[in-house]
Amino acid sequence: MNGTARQGPGAAGDELEIDLLLEGVFQRYGFDFRAYERCGLKRRVLGLMAERDLATVSLLQDRVLHDAASASALLRALSVRPAFLFDDPEQVRQLREVLCTCLGASALPKVWLAECAHAEEAWSLAILLAEQKMHRRTEIFATVANEELLAEAVDASIPMERMAQYQENYLKSGGTAKLADYFEVRGKRAVLLPALRSRVTWAQYNLVTDASFNEFQLILCRRALADFGPLLRQRVLRLFHDSLARFGVLGIDRALAPGDTLAASYQPVFAHQAWYKRVA
Q1: Which residues contact 198 (CB under 8 A, 6 or more apart)?
Q2: pLDDT per residue over 72-91, tens digit each?
Q3: pTM of the model
Q4: Helices (H), 7-81
Q5: Helix H or strand E segment including 219
Q6: CheR-type methyltransferase domain: from which residue to which, for each copy (predicted)?
């Protein structure tokens, strides 16, 4: 039996084994996935098992607890999926408007990309700030829980063959310039200009366990929050509230529900979109 076969309804023991796997990861490595949304997490675990031809979660657990490469593969599989430069043009259009209307009045705005989905998400924001003439007075804090992904983000570069597609995405998002002007070329790869990279501060930070560390005028968490189970989601929403300045803006994955933590403290920025201004 391979990993793919265990995705059927007969895999009744998977839930218990996944509980043990997550507990082991927490005790051994300090990463707490126990309160993540279970269906998505299970799909990623079973996908990793299929890739490695492992018949049971227990076999995966044994490798994860005793082999650093297997542990790294699991942590990567359970981490936020990467974002690419301007890969969601409609969201970028909304972000452009937020930056213009909601951050313009702040003397020294701070932006938090919580569980940043790789360097290209931060680079997209840095380019937008430059186009609004705000990059010199705005600091971006990009945080990632996984140390390996953090190191990759700090040293990131883009293959030149992707730039044509990125230019197309950029134009769809409302850009009017030549995207390549924001990059320097190093061989066959492109890196964001130093003046823009310097506005991004990278740090290791865990949304599940860490406390508020600053006050921000804008907090973005549009990918990672979708992976969290109900209780963890409410915990992180409170963390964001504690970290957001009054009249600051919160951009998340889906609309706040009436029962969400401190939902009454926010007003929608756009109709039918998950952007909110803190008013209380």
Answers
A1: none
A2: 999 999 999 899 999 999 99
A3: 0.92
A4: 14-29, 38-51, 57-66, 68-78
A5: strand 216-221
A6: 25-250
